[in-house]
Amino acid sequence: xxxxxxxxxxxxxxxxxxxxxxxxxxxxxxxxxxxxxxxxxxxxxxxxxxxxxxxxxxxxxxxxxxxxxxxxxxxxxxxxxxxxxxxxxxxxxxxxxxxxxxxxxxxxxxxxxxxxxxxxxxxxxxxxxxxxxxxxxxxxxxxxxxxxxxxxxxxxxxxxxxxxxxxxxxxxxxxxxxxxxxxxxxxxxxxxxxxxxxxxxxxxxxxxxxxxxxxxxxxxxxxxxxxxxxxxxxxxxxxxxxxxxxxxxxxxxxxxxxxxxxxxxxxxxxxxxxxxxxxxxxxxxxxxxxxxxxxxxxxxxxxxxxxxxxxxxxxxxxxxxxxxxxxxxxxxxxxxxxxxxxxxxx
Length: 346
Description:
This protein is an alpha+beta fold. The chain has 2 domains: 119 residues, Phosphorylase Kinase, domain 1 (2-Layer Sandwich); 214 residues, Aminoglycoside phosphotransferase (APH), C-terminal lobe (Aminoglycoside 3'-phosphotransferase, Chain: A, domain 2, Alpha-Beta Complex). Helices cover 44% and strands 15% of the residues. It has 10 helices and 10 strands. Strands 1-2-3-5-4 form a 5-stranded antiparallel sheet, sandwiched between helices. The longest helix is centred in the C-terminal third of the chain and has 28 residues. The protein is globular and about 55 Å long.
C-alpha cells in the first residue's frame, strides 16, 4: 500500500499496548484529583474510559493513540474550548482542566510510549443508533449540525489540515484500500463508483466554502432523549474533525442517517433532504454546494463500506468495527450509485 495512504491510516492500525484501567485511574487521581470507578469504552483510535465519581458525576477519559501527534490531539481540545466560548449552551463535551490548569496531560504508558490524555464531561442520553428513526429526528440532526458549524466558524488551528481517511476530500484514496479487499462483495462496483466520485470531487470540492467541521455526525456520535427520540440532546466524539468543505459535513450527516434497512434510492433521497433542508434553515447552502451534495453523500456511503471492511480485515483486534452484512453493503453501494447523479435543490 502506498506510503501516503499508510499515513492516513496510521492511528487506525498502529500497535499500542492498552492502558490498564488501574493505570488510567492512577493518572486521574494524580492529575485531576478524582477518585472514580472506571469501565472501558470502545474507540476507533483513542482508548476511552467512562469514569463515575463518588457523587455520581460522570466523565470520559480519552487517551490518544501514540501514533497521533500531540498537535492533532490539541486541535480537538482547542475546538471544544472554542465551542464553549462561541455557543456555551451547545450540548457537547466540556474539557476539564488538570490540577496545573492544563487542558490535557502527557504521560508515559506501560510500554514506554508517550501518550496524551484528556478528561471530558460525560453526556447522558440514548445513542441515536439504538433509537427509532424519523424525519423529525433527521431534521433535528440537520439543525444541530448547522449550529455546530456556526460555532466552529472562524476557528483555526495549526493542525486543521490533518490527514484523515474519513475526509471526503480524499475519496480517491479508497482505491488503495480496495487492493486489500479482494473478497469484498460488489468490489468491482465499488471501484467504478470511486473512480466516478473522485473525478467530480477532485474538480468541484476545492471551489466550495471550507471551514473546520465535526465531520462525523453518525448514529454513534449523536444522543437523543429517551422519552422523545426525535429530540437530539447532544453530540460527542470530535476525533474525525478536520478543515474541509462545509457541504461535506452535511453529506456525512445525511449519509449516516439514511435508515440502515433502506434499500430504496428514492427513500434515501428523501432522507438526505430531511437533513439538508433543516441544515439550510440555519446555514443557507449555495447552489454549487447542493449540486455536489448527492455525490458527496454517495462517497460517504462507499467509505462506510470500504473503510469499515478494510479496518475489520487489517485491525481485527480493535473490536470497534464489526463485519457488515453482504446485503447491507450491496444496498449501500446501490444507493450511492443513484445518489451520485442527483443534484439537490431546496
